[in-house]
Amino acid sequence: MNYIETKRLILRNFTEEDVNALFTLLSDRVVNEYLPMFPLKDIEEAKKYLTYIDDYIRHGGLYYAICLKEDNTPIGCIHVSADDSYDLGYSISKSFWHKGICTEACQTIVNRLKGVGVPYITATHDVNNPRSGKVMQAIGMEYKYSYEELWQPKNFLVTFRMYQLNLDGNKGRTYKKYWDKYPVHFIEDTSL
Q1: Helices marked H in 59-174 — which ranges?
Q2: 11, 97, 120, 148: which could join 64 in a potential S-S bond, CB 3.0 to 4.6 Å?
Q3: What value does the mean pLDDT take over residues 128-145?
Q4: What is the pTM of this model?
């Protein structure tokens, strides 16, 4: 699963040659606004982040560069954690927003995970970032609940919406870790 092609994209491991593209992506304050980290300040931080990605993969997670087929240069990233949340996360350069690229990459990852026995995936988004939730919905994820978290390292209160997609047919399963961990949790009427 280290190299996947879709209609428009290549999903592949990051390499040292991608450090400038990674810096461009993760130093952008607009792209970074809803990421659980501060924007990268320089190329040295981007190099350290490549080490973080290697460790993430070494510990069983998936972490891919999202590249357009035409030039194979990273324009985004997508990852799935190895812990019991199987948390799906993604980001993409602002100039590629609203083109269905994250949805295409996420659907491809979901299809691959079904084939390797991952029982479910979860994903969360800040209520102030509803477009991320639209990606989750587009790949078949269902809203389960919302919760408030003092988000670190940025240290401000965020209301997250938690989505889940059960890949093994167990439609009744809900990942409750965030519900149980955070005292302020509730179910919103997302049909409004």
Answers
A1: 101-115, 130-138
A2: 11
A3: 97
A4: 0.94
